[in-house]
Amino acid sequence: MARTKEFDPDAALQSALELFWRRGYEATSMSDLVEHLGIGRASIYATFGSKHELYLKALDRYAETRDPSLLAELSQPGPALPAVRAVVRRFAAEAASPESRLNGCFVTNTAAELAPHDPAAARRVEISWEHVETPLYSALVRAQAQGELPEGRDPHALARMLFVLLQGLRVVGKASNDPARVRDAAEQALALLD
After folding, report:
1. Is the alpha carbon torsion for 33, 36, 37, 41 positive or negative?
2. Side-chain half-sphere CA neighbours of 164 within 13 A
3. CA distance linking residue 153 with residue 141, whole number of Å
4. Which part of the chain is the HTH tetR-type domain (predicted)?
5. Banded model confidence at residue 13, pLDDT cuts 50, 70, 90
6. Distance (Å, whole) CA 163 – CA 14
7. Which DSSP helix (H) or strand (E) runs through 13?
8. In angstroms, what CA-CA distances link 190 with 14, 19, 172?
9. Would you state the CATH architecture of domain 9-63?
10. Which of 29, 88, 173, 182 is least surrounded by CB atoms within 10 angstroms?
């Protein structure tokens, strides 16, 4: 007869996510996970698989819970550019917040640490990035169709520029203790939409 789990796998996954997010993949050992989750190594392996599989599951969880409203924010009826500006300013404010200085963005951290040599992590990063870039592009296309964005502007290129800016804001916000740095960059980028 199989034993029932004596821990909540969902809570353990959330706890692993928080540890990986704070420390990164390489700096988190299985011993760290055992201690942080308060469950045995064998239980971790039986429930989540390897450390790498647990990391990917934590990354999936993060992607499911972060910015779930981005599409809704950018697809509201009416003028589109105010929504785009609000999203960029929100990302800048989040990047400059004390919490971001501690952890940054888990997807951005993964992009820097694992994506260059880990195809499974790279796929997840790319999917997450598409969930940011595509709604930006759609909003900019709508803005152009509504006359908010000049005809000569390329919505696809602008969406990519804003997406790269958002990722850069997350990196700089984590590394810098000068909030003006990210706010100024965001405002200069938004000026390109005028």
Report:
1. positive
2. 6
3. 10
4. 6-66
5. very high
6. 27
7. helix 9-23
8. 35, 34, 18
9. Orthogonal Bundle (1.10)
10. 29
The one-letter code for the residue type at 173 is G
In the chain, domain spans: 9-63, 67-191
Read off the amino acid at residue 191: A
111 near 125, Cβ under 8 Å? yes
Question: Could you give the CA distance from residue 104 to residue 88 in angstroms, rounded to a whole number?
Answer: 16
**Gap between the Cα atoms of 163 and 132, Å rounded:** 7
Side chain identity at 104, as an amino acid letter? G
Residue 28 has pLDDT above 50, yes or no: yes
| Amino acid identity at 92 | A
Q: Is CATH 1.10.760.10 the right assignment for the domain spanning 67-191?
A: no
> Helices 51-65 and 30-37 meet at what angle, rounded to 10?
60
- Find where tokens 């990047």 sit: 95
Radius of gyration over every alpha carbon of the chain, rounded to an integer in angstroms:
19
Amino acid at 108: T
At 69, list the tokens.
């409203």
